[in-house]
Amino acid sequence: MPSGLVALLDDVSVIARTAAASIDDISVAASRAGTKAAGVVIDDAAVTPSYVTGLSPARELPIIWKITKGSLKNKLLFLLPGALALSVFLPGAIIFLLMLGGGFLCYEGAEKVMEKLGGAKHGKTIEDEITDPEKFENERVNGAIRTDLILSAEIMAISLNEIAAITDDFWVRAVALAVVGIAITVVVYGAVALIVKMDDVGLHLSQQESGFELTFGHFLLQSMPKLLTLLSVVGTVAMLWVGGGIIVHGTHELGLHALYDIAHGAEYAVQGATGALGGFFGWLTYAAISAVLGLAIGAVIAFVLHKVLKIGHGDEAH
After folding, report:
1. Residue by residue, what is the 3-state secondary structure of the chain?
2. Between 30 and which of 107, 179, 191, 262 could a Cys-Cys bridge form, CB atoms 3.0 to 4.6 Å apart?
3. Is residue 97 within 8 Å of residue 86, measured between CB atoms?
């Protein structure tokens, strides 16, 4: 009996150590995947506030909640099973999906740059007159969820690629992908909810008679438009940088090394020439080259779609 109890306790300890190791693997995989997907996340957070622009302040949080539920559904019910099936049955397709998503990010980023420079806008914009608020709200939510599906697919593909490099355990991959999907959704849409309500908070505080609350309220009212503009710029740059970087690494893995050698050659040259800050400036050089490459690729895709194939951008708000 004692030996049986000792054996049982030993089995329990082995199971506990295995579980702890699996949890550690999940946390490491999720952390790496989340870091790699950061560029897409920034763009998602920058784009989403536009979907409540022009609507009643009372509808802002309900709309964001609808989009949040749609995003979780996209990630957990559709993309997670699909990503896991690919990793088991067709792992070689992941790199092509990554590059397809990278091309989409380049296209979206380049189109935003061209529109800012005076190019034609494609699809409905936030400047359009709202004649039916309920219909317009539903269109905004559906458009946001469709856009989220594409961005979420890219996030899950990036995450799966990182997780697959760490572990081949199916359940660790599944849990890590689910953790990344839920965490990113909560962070993105929580930040969006905070951003879109800051002007309301500022308006409330600015109605105080005097003191810090009044000053802070005016600060919020003045700074929120600038913050949204900054987020838009950062989001666009992030799309181009991430999209271009995916293309660089994808072509390298497929045996075409020119872009990879140029980007990383410049990174290492700058890193070696800038001393203690070499790591930062090297990364910045690589990111800049990736963004320029992404802009060029996106511009070509936009030209082919709009000028050659005569395809519009769709119904999403810009």
Report:
1. CHHHHHHHHHHHHHHHHHHHHHHHHHHHHHHHHHHHCHHHHHHHHHHHHHHHCCCCHHHHHHHHHHHHHHHHHHHHHHHHHHHHHHHHHCHHHHHHHHHHHHHHHHHHHHHHHHHHCCCCCCCCCCCCCCCCHHHHHHHHHHHHHHHHHHHHHHHHHHHHHHHHHHCCCHHHHHHHHHHHHHHHHHHHHHHHHHHHHHHHHHHHHHCCCCCHHHHHHHHHHHHHHHHHHHHHHHHHHHHHHHHHHHHHHHHHHCCCCHHHHHHHHHHHHHHHHCHHHHHHHHHHHHHHHHHHHHHHHHHHHHHHHHHHCCCCCCCCCC
2. 179
3. yes
CB atoms within 10 A of CB 72: 17
Ranges 49-63, 183-197, 256-270: which has the least confidence: 49-63
| Range scoring the smallest mean pLDDT among 39-43, 214-218, 287-291 | 39-43
Tokens of 21: 């190791």
**Which has more pLDDT, 12 or 142?**
142
From the list 233, 305, 214, 307, the residue with the least C-alpha distance to 46 is: 233
Contacts for 223 with CB less than 8 Å, ≥ 6 apart: none
pLDDT level of residue 178 (50, 70, 90 thresholds):
confident
